[in-house]
Specification:
Number of strands: 7
Radius of gyration: 21 Å
Order of helices and strands: HEHHEEHEEEE
Number of helices: 4
Strand content: 35-45%
Distance between the termini: 84 Å
CATH topology: Translation Initiation Factor IF3
CATH class: Alpha Beta
């Protein structure tokens, strides 16, 4: 009888392990303005680099220096989706800033969400994917020299 119970338990465990895991991966559209105005973003982003999202009007582009993408994740455990998304957004923006400096750009234009390489362009919102333990933001933009206003 013990052998039969043990066999049944092992079969049940094997079947449960074969079932797909359903982790939370919520697609959220978050306001760019809130993320850009957060104290952490204002403190950490270099104000000498300017950022333009989607189709926002820019000063005259003098020279395009390249295009690059950033895909950043952050620990979401114990954080609200909003807070986790803001941290992932800031990490992605810092990565774009670093690349702009490497290229000698003074602006990043045409910034779009690029989650799993699916482009979503907006002047007002960015895409964030939030789960129980991770949140992620992927951004892509063009690095340029723009004219002073």
């Amino acid at each position: 009888m013990k052998k039969l119970l043990c066999s049944a338990a092992l079969t049940g465990l094997a079947m449960a392990a074969a079932l797909p895991a359903h982790a939370r991966d919520d697609k959220l559209m978050m306001p760019i303005s809130v993320a850009m105005e957060s104290p952490e973003t204002k403190e950490k982003l270099d104000s000498s680099i300017r950022y333009y999202f989607g189709n926002q009007k820019t000063p005259k582009v003098l020279k395009k220096l390249g295009t690059d993408a950033s895909n950043k994740k952050t620990n979401a455990f114990g954080k609200s989706d909003e807070k986790a998304c803001q941290w992932a957004f800031l990490s992605a923006m810092l990565s774009l800033e670093q690349r702009a400096k490497e290229l000698g750009a003074n602006a990043v234009v045409n910034i779009v969400s690029n989650y799993k390489k699916v482009v979503m362009s907006s002047d007002t919102d960015y895409e964030c994917h939030a789960g129980g333990i991770m949140a992620g933001v992927a951004l892509k933009g063009d690095f340029v020299k723009i004219a002073d206003k």
